[in-house]
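For practice. Any example?
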Amino acid sequence: MFRLYLTGSVTIVGPDCTVEEAELPGGQGRVLVAALGLAHGPVPSDALAERLWPTDMPTDWSKSLAPIVSRVRSKLRQADPSQTATIRVASGCHELVLPPDMWVDVEDATRRLDRAEGHLRRGAAAAAWTDAAPASAVLRRPLLPGFDAPWVDGWRAVLDDRHHRCWIVLAEAWLQRDDPTLARTAACEAIAVDPYNEDGHRLLIRAELAAGNRSGAVRAAATCRTLLREELGVDPSPETIALEREVLG
């Protein structure tokens, strides 16, 4: 199977060899692979150049882009003996073409997360954990570390949201499986990813209650309320307030 890792270190894994990030051409090589791998289709060449050079795009960017594309294309073909993997250039666009049985880490993690949430809605906690755990392992890895651009920031926000959802599923799954200790760990991870999302705070409160730690639940509720008031200037949602009253009552 052909595998493409876009998070962490950009890596191309084929049946015969693995192309590590260090083998891609300069800093732009990994950015090119990530930009095309996340696009799911053709990308206009000028837009692709803007993604590679967000602050100092060369005046004659097409001449700078061509050799990078050529070298990445050769690495793709090196990893894929079927010669299916390539970068297609047509109609003023660039497109990453992969074999039919391709596996992309971000896409696989997203599919697993969607399945996990579906399992959880049906009360299948074990199946939810089975999908959410590997999805979380992918989504916790950084996207293009050390490279900053508006389009990357947008994708990082998307992946952070999915990562947060993974921890919510895991916390809820552990609560359903009567393991408040692991539920508490997962809830704390969810809060670390997105401290202003109340889902993680509510799960932490519920985990403390399930563990018989009412004082911990009180502290968790107070922390949530203080954070929202001091940082956002808002009160908790009605759902959180109802849970807070249950704790205090």
User: Anything to note?
Assistant: The radius of gyration is 22 Å. The chain has a mean pLDDT of 95. The chain has two domains: 3-101, 105-248. Strands lie at 3-5, 11-13, 18-19, 43-44, 86-90, 93-97, 103-104.
